[in-house]
Structure formats: structure tokens, C-alpha cells
Write a structure and sequence with these properties.
alpha+beta, six-stranded antiparallel beta sheet
Length: 179
């Protein structure tokens, strides 16, 4: 019931006066969980409009964070949304709602395919390059929020290492984007 109330109160698309969201239709799937730090859940729910019985099935992502991380993620996502207005090859997840009391952010589901599904398919180096550029933009957007440069350098190094382990033949592209 609490999640249903948050949807009504915070998601402007589905006001209680116009829509009915069944709490029984809400299904959660854990995407990522780090104890005491964060949980990311994929949520499916159904909404029915009162007037014409129009029905929607929606998928959203729920991010539950420790308070400090919640604030930083909200600021980063706001920066990324602003940057993406001028970039045409990537899109950050759109924030649908916030609940500060529970350190909850509700994100829209993004269209597309996971990068791991693109490996070996025609055009996969281009997909990897676009992903690396988006990660680089994200790190630049977060840069102004960190007080120590070593934090950013460590993060860039970790992402570079991860991408080159997954796709070693694209090391040059990844290295050029992270420098």
C-alpha cells in the first residue's frame, strides 16, 4: 500500500483522482542490492483510468539509497539530464518521482538493449563507444560534486578496467575516452 500511495502522491502521470493503481498488481524484481547502501528494483504495476477504463501496464525502476548517496545521485541525474539536452547519442533515465523521506527515486524504464546483448552483433563497437562516451559524461557531471580528484580518477580507472576486460579489442577507444 505504501508504494501505491507514493505512486499516487509523487507520479504526476497517475493522480489518484483519475487513475486506480492496484496494489495487488505491483510486482518487484531485485536488480541490484548492496546491504546498507542501495537497492535497485524493477517494478511492474497496472493502472486503470476511472473515466474510460483505459489500462496501462508500466515498468519503472525504484532506487532506494542511503541519504548521502540519494542527494548525490539526484544532483548527478539532474546534471546528466541537462547535458543530454545537447547530446543526441545517449539519454539518462528520466526521473519520474522522488520521495526524500524514504530516499527513493523512481526512474522511467529506458528503451534499448543491454550492452552485453550487443557484443558480437553488427555495430557493437559503435554501441560500446556510445556507452563509453555516456560513462565519461556521467563522470564529468559528477566531477564537480567530489572534493578529491582521486575519487574521480579511481572511478574512471575502474570503468576503463571493466570495459577493457569485457571487450579487450576496444581498448584504444576506451582509453581515448577516459583520458
Amino acid at each position: 500500500k505504501k508504494l501505491q500511495r507514493i505512486f499516487y502522491d509523487r507520479m504526476t502521470e497517475y493522480p489518484n483522482s483519475d487513475w486506480r493503481i492496484s496494489d495487488r498488481s505491483i510486482r518487484l524484481q531485485v536488480v541490484r542490492y548492496k546491504p546498507e547502501r542501495r537497492a535497485v528494483l524493477r517494478c511492474r504495476f497496472r493502472a486503470q483510468r476511472h473515466d474510460d477504463a483505459d489500462r496501462h501496464e508500466r515498468f519503472v525502476y525504484l532506487g532506494l539509497y542511503e541519504t548521502e548517496r540519494f542527494v548525490r545521485l539526484w544532483e548527478t541525474n539532474s546534471s546528466l539530464t541537462e547535458i543530454a539536452r545537447h547530446a543526441h547519442d545517449w539519454t539518462p533515465a528520466r526521473t519520474l518521482a522522488l520521495d526524500q523521506s524514504d530516499a527513493l527515486i523512481i526512474f522511467a524504464e529506458l528503451d534499448g538493449r543491454p550492452l552485453r546483448d550487443m557484443l558480437g552483433v553488427d555495430g557493437w563497437p559503435d554501441a560500446l563507444e556510445r556507452t563509453a562516451r555516456a560513462v565519461a559524461e556521467m563522470n564529468r557531471a559528477e566531477a564537480h560534486m567530489f572534493t578529491e580528484t582521486t575519487d574521480i580518477t579511481d572511478q574512471i580507472g575502474q570503468v576503463r578496467g571493466m570495459l577493457t576486460r569485457v571487450v579487450p579489442e576496444c581498448r584504444e577507444i576506451v582509453d581515448s575516452l577516459s583520458s
